[in-house]
């Protein structure tokens, strides 16, 4: 025992030798874009946690001090603006990556049996990422953030049946107040991270289970060993993502704006985050009523319906038909056009 | 008992204990959920109060100011003819804060381009309902607003 080297002591207990050993040699498809996108998303989430914990140390969730504390993070603390930028851009890219994974899954028909629950957990992950981005955008408590908190929670209130309860839960009352900021902060740093971590674990478990169930279908495809080839590729992808995030955080200016003032008119050109722009365009251009219902309520209901359809996709289209890919392509084009319209 | 019977009894025992574990966990979860959810419920204290919008003599004609009444923003306007009007400043479309435009003599919501007339009625854009009116009273030279 004493004659052994300490590294051997560790190796024995962690079974690191298994990683490269022949008997545990697992293979993965070489060209599945979603495997790489999954690594991108996981790495981005790691960046979120790391930068988020740093921000947490200096942020104050009290509405009197929130804006000031964010301004200090951006202006005074060493590398504060970089940390804030990394947190912001890794969050935006996380939403983009998870949405892209869903689109890729549709075009590859990857939501069909036995991967139905992989799809469902993926939709849930993308939804949580959107909730992260939304709650995070409220925290600086700028005038723009305050407007987004008002409009966003009001839209949540238009979800059929559970909407009014959700609205009161999000706002911590009927009105957007300092309690809303505290509530949103709680969701952003405690509830959502816990749920997201659980959903990631579930997603990986389901992916693994589905891969084992379809091990034969791998035989035709080009595969590479998970270790070392796969690990090396994924490390390269992670380094690339890090370079992109740090470049964005360093070179893209993001002025903070004015502090929130409930007694000031909402700023003109108040626009939501990029992934809400299509909805923004619809809300702005709709007539007061649609089919006898207030248009905002109608749009809220329609979006809820679309979301339920998206979750249930594997149970509606069991074979991954071309019609589904066509509908999704059409929706993406419409969303892009609406987003461009919203910017005018 | 034969071996077959033994294994059958064993599997019944396993099933029973499994169900007992799941049932206990569910009961404990439900027990914890009731106070947890009740705690999250926001308190709905609503004392219909009033708020001051300043002294009449300090309120220039053709201007407006937004004050908070029970946490809710209220838009108080002094029309060019000197009359006071007050509305909830919350846009009836999606809850942005509206503003008074003197040059266009109307109330506008910048978020989704909603427009209201000076009597609070929705004129154009997406809002489907008029602004909620608020009462303005002058008490010894001070403007007091309260919900009608």
What does the model show?
The complex is a heterodimer of chains A (344) and B (148). Chain A is mainly alpha-helical and 344 residues long. Chain A is built from 14 helices and four strands. The longest helix of chain A is centred in the middle third of the chain and has 36 residues, at 178-213. Chain B has a four-stranded antiparallel sheet with strand order 5-6-7-8, with no helix packed on it. With 148 residues, chain B is of the alpha+beta class. Chain B contains one helix and ten strands. Chain B starts with a helix and ends with a strand. Chain B has one helix spanning 3-40; strands at 50-55, 63-69, 72-78, 84-88, 99-101, 106-109, 114-116, 122-124, 134-139, 142-147. In chain B, 28% of the residues are buried. Classes of the chains: A mainly alpha (344), B alpha+beta (148).
The Cα radius of gyration of chain A reads 23 Å
Overall pLDDT level of chain A: 91
Number of helices of chain A: 14
Oligomer: heterodimer
Structural class of chain B: alpha+beta
Approximate strand percentage of chain A: under 5%
Distance between the termini of chain A: 73 Å
Spatial arrangement of strands, main beta sheet of chain B: 5-6-7-8
Strand content of chain B: 25-35%
Uncertain spans of chain B: none
Main beta sheet of chain B: strand number and arrangement?
4 strands, antiparallel
Q: Report the span from N to C terminus of chain B.
A: 83 Å
What Rg of chain B do the Cα atoms give?
30 Å
Return the structural class of chain A: mainly alpha
Given the structure, what is the number of helices of chain B? 1
**What is the helical fraction of chain A, as a range of percent?**
55-70%
Find the count of extended strands of chain A (DSSP E, 2+ residues): 4
Beta-strand segment tally of chain B: 10
Shape of chain A: globular
Catalogue the unreliable spans of chain A: none
């Amino acid at each position: 025992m004493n004659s052994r080297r300490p590294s051997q002591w560790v190796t024995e207990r962690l079974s690191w030798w298994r990683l490269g050993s022949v008997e545990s040699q697992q293979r993965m498809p070489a060209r599945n874009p979603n495997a790489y996108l999954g690594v991108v998303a996981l790495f981005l989430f790691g960046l979120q946690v790391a930068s988020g914990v740093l921000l947490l140390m200096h942020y104050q969730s009290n509405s009197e001090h929130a804006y000031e504390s964010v301004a200090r993070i951006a202006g005074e603390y060493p590398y504060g603006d970089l940390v804030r930028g990394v947190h912001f851009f890794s969050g935006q890219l996380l939403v983009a990556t998870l949405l892209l994974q869903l689109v890729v899954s549709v075009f590859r028909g990857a939501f069909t049996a036995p991967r139905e629950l992989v799809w469902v957990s993926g939709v849930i992950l993308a939804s949580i990422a959107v909730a992260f981005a939304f709650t995070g955008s409220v925290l600086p408590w700028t005038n723009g953030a305050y407007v987004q908190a008002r409009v966003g929670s009001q839209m949540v209130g238009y979800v059929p049946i559970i909407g009014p309860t959700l609205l009161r839960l999000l706002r911590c009352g009927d009105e957007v107040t300092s309690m809303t900021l505290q509530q949103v902060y709680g969701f952003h740093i405690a509830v959502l991270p816990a749920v997201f971590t659980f959903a990631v674990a579930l997603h990986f478990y389901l992916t693994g289970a589905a891969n084992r169930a379809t091990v034969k279908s791998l035989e035709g495809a080009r595969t590479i060993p998970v270790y070392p080839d796969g690990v090396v590729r994924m490390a390269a992808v992670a380094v690339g993502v890090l370079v992109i995030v740090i470049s964005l955080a360093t070179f893209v200016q993001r002025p903070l704006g004015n502090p929130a003032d409930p007694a000031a008119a909402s700023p003109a050109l108040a626009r939501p985050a990029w992934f809400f722009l299509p909805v923004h365009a619809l809300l702005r251009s709709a007539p007061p009523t649609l089919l006898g219902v207030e248009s905002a309520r109608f749009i809220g209901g329609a979006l809820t319906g679309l979301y339920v359809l998206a979750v249930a996709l594997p149970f509606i289209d069991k074979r991954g038909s071309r019609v589904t890919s066509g509908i999704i392509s059409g929706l993406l084009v419409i969303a892009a056009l609406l987003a461009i319209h919203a910017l005018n | 008992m034969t071996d077959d019977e033994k294994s059958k009894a064993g599997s019944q025992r396993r099933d029973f204990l499994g169900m007992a574990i799941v049932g206990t966990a569910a009961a404990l979860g439900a027990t914890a959920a009731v106070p947890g959810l009740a705690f999250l419920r926001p308190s709905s204290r609503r004392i219909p109060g009033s708020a001051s919008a300043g002294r009449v003599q300090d309120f220039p004609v053709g201007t407006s100011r937004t004050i908070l009444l029970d946490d809710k923003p209220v838009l108080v306007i002094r029309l060019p003819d000197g009359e006071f009007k007050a509305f909830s400043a919350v846009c009836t479309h999606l809850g942005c804060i509206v503003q008074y435009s003197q040059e266009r003599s109307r109330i506008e919501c910048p978020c989704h381009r909603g427009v209201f007339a000076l009597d609070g009625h929705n004129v154009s854009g997406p809002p489907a309902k008029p602004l909620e009116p608020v009462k303005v009273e002058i008490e010894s030279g001070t403007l007091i607003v309260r919900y009608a």
